[in-house]
Specification:
The structure holds two protein chains of two kinds. By secondary structure, chain A is α/β, with parallel strands linked by helices. Chain A is built from 21 helices and 22 strands. Chain A is globular, with a radius of gyration of 26 Å. Helices cover about 55% and strands about 10% of the residues of chain B. In chain B, the strands form three sheets. Chain B has a three-stranded antiparallel β-sheet with strand order 2-3-6, with no helix packed on it. The chains are: A alpha/beta, B alpha+beta. Chain B: Keywords: Membrane, Transmembrane, Transmembrane helix, Transport.
Chain lengths: ~625, ~375
Amino acid sequence: MTPLLSIRDLTIDFRTDRQNFRALDGLSLDVAPGRTLALVGESGSGKSVTAQAILRILPRSATITAGRILFAEPEQPGTVREITALPADGPQMRELRGGRIAMIFQEPMTCLSPLHTIGDQVGEALRVHTGASRADADAQTRDALARVGFPDPERALHTYPFELSGGLRQRAMIAMALIMRPALLVADEPTTALDVTTQAQILALLGRLQAETGMSILLITHDLGVVANMAHDVAVLYRGRLVEAGSREDVLRRPGHPYLRALIKAVPRFDMAPGERLTPITPARVTIPQRPPPVLRPGPILSVAGVSKVFALRSAKASGEAGLIRAVTDVSLAVKAGQTLGLVGESGSGKTTLSKMVMRAVVPSAGRILFDAGAGPRNVHALSGADLFAYRRAVQFVFQDPYSSLDPRMTVGELLGEPMRIHGIPKRERQQRTRDLMAMVGLDPGGLSRYPHAFSGGQRQRIGIARALALEPRVLLLDEPVSALDVSVQAQILNLLKDLQAALGLTYLIVSHNLAVIDYMADTISVMCRGRIVEAAPKATLFRNPAHPYTRALLAAVPDPSLDHPLDFAAVSGEHSDPTAWPEPFRLTAAESGAMREIEAGHEVRMGGTEALRAA
Amino acid sequence: MQEAGRRHFVDTAPFDPATGPAHGHDAATDTASAWRLIARKFLRHRLAVASLIILAAMYATIPVVEFLAPYEQNKRHGDMLYAPPQAVHLFHEGAFRGPFVYPYRAHFDLESFQRSYIADTSAPQPLRFLCRGEPYHYFGLIAGDRHLLCPPEGGSLFLLGTDKLGRDLLSRIIYGARISLVIGLAGVAISFVLGLFFGGIAGYFGGLTDAAVQRLIEIVRSVPELPLWLALSAALPPNWSPLAIFFGITLILGLLDWPGLARAVRSKLLALREEDFVAAAELMGASPRHVIQRHLIPNFMSHLIASATLAIPTMILGETALSFLGLGLRPPVTSWGVLLNEAQNLAAVQLYPWLLLPTVPVLVTVLAYNFLGDGLRDAADPYH
């Protein structure tokens, strides 16, 4: 069988006024008809450049220096179009784009025009390519929307993108891409911006559509779990070079290249033995100064007691109740000193609002946040003056985005010294401490005179962690500390955090949507959904015996990089974050918030009012 | 070949993850501060660099106009009214003579009442360089009489012609640059301070303050500019000294131009406040003063300078327009606008088109500022 798409010795160079850069170096691969080829790589590996080259939408600074891209016309056997030889904006290329080859992007919101209805945008390709009439296009669009799983396709025709959830927007994008029934779908990180349960649904949808239409998919991803569940064939890119390619079985079961072998070992998995450490591709050599272990008090160092946060929408302030958003409802947590509490939830679950309330960046509507510095618990939001200053020193925050969290106009030395400067530590001591901090996070103290732009994402995150440690805090709040980083760097950062915790007796509150990361880091885990904690348990208990339907759905939706644990797509097709749809006894009506019940030692689950009444 | 996708391919090239990612940075870039990066990025914008050089050259003339101009700005030549530009020649009757001019002979046609000038090509008059000419006082203090270029002995040198009083236009343009170029900078300095203040309080405090400043900006912006200028400059007492009028006009231009800068400051502040590094400083316990001084100002200053540069042409054009209408600066002060004021008469323009030449430096300055501002704006954020 001839491949649908062949890439031969493709070399792409980027020319900027500062430097020339080879993004792809002699890439050769084939996409067979009806199969999915997963193109795996980290940032800078050249995987997105490949996609852009196939559609000839490369940025102006890029040139195809060598190689060919061949596309075998599926309708006319024997006709092979040489994509690299066509003018990028010519009529033939336009006919291929959207007609025979379609693409879906990572960010569904920015790819849809906010001014046009879904119906308009999905039908546009049809009208452009076939000149179909309005009514005709609408009818076909309706079918397409139904196929991608819109509950009410007729209504969807007339809705605008802002009315849709992220998952539905990505479905609309897929409908748009598939309306011309392309032979090849290029999907560039199609689920990276989505929650795990939504990701599983979109992956299931792509699989189903492929079975129905027989199209090929070039799936670009960095997530080995997605690869294991979706790909027929796998190609691994590393810094612009193809390092390994073959069938999924071959590549994932018998990885041959040291990079891929290391990558597989660097991803946190659920079946890791207790105490097993991840092996980063490049381990950080850290030197943590020995300190006498801090005296840990038995009680919780940080606790959240019945905290709620209600935001009033400005537009609805006058009309009352209708404009209220309950971001966090009656949340209680407790973290013991020296331990890690993991807070898991999907976007909109309220986990970020909660962490902001702990940092005093948002004032809770009800409830208290208590911090025990050694002299008994005190309400954080009642602190002022010197006490507040001391709290700022004891509780530090590590940001998600290592790019925006470091001021680009300060050297690393200034960045690390800033918290100490604010807290009045003398200059001599500051200089010594910044050196120690660099060594603690495994960076060369020679980097102190450099600016953040000289560092990679992982190194920047280490600088962020070093800055948080500058004032010798007791508690670190980690907000998605690795989600902006490449997989190979994630392991390095997670191990660093573990080592620092062990050496310095730190307490962590880690917030993440990534269950595997939480599993690797946390001692106890709380699962948040729609502003409420629905399940809380020690790590081992939660993953062995998840009780709440939402937790179960989350766990079932995480794609595992091992071929032995395929996703059960059937289990994630429903709506899991809607409390009114949960089965008894977990169901919550709109008005009630239920109550946490202990089902085994330390394992609490939220149950609906009916059950609570019966138990009482 | 068809099995290429199925065969298990493993690259055999050596793999060394320790060699850092292809960052492509050199040590100098790694330790380069933001201002160095901005300068580097700016220097790659050729048009902007050329504009900067032109502007620098123009501003460099300001302290030495007396030396550069062949004549004093108010020196009248009663017998040379409306003389057309005189050409500079190098060859006389096939022989190289160095730069020289032919003397003008005025001829008055008594029938058409028109004055005409005929170059006497028999008597070349060589130009003199770095010569002693009319005496002047640098800044009104230091006496001097050297000129870069002097008219020939007993002859005249009107490279751009003369006006109705027989004053040399080139000299007047050189003198006029002093006022016209400075007024742009001075006006922007005023609107910079106002914009920084209003934009700063709107962006930093937000809420009611922000709303109030926004409404104020909208009111200022919605007043038709030209009539307001006219009204304000008409309100300047006519018995003020030319210097006071100059400051008055500058103030008027500055007072009306700050809204654009205030908006730029405000929006940049709002964007910066969302950055994590500002939140990080606040969570460290930093005071608002620390946040503003260490994080906000350094990060928006480059953007602000770019915006201010783009505002200077408006000032220069404003002064030119006001003076052209006779409501800005008044003689004996000379600015490009004042010079153009003489070109108001259509008949005069038809007969003596060189009176329009002061538009050329205005055009060059405004274009140069616009290119410079573009280059600065592109370079203001060196991390993209």
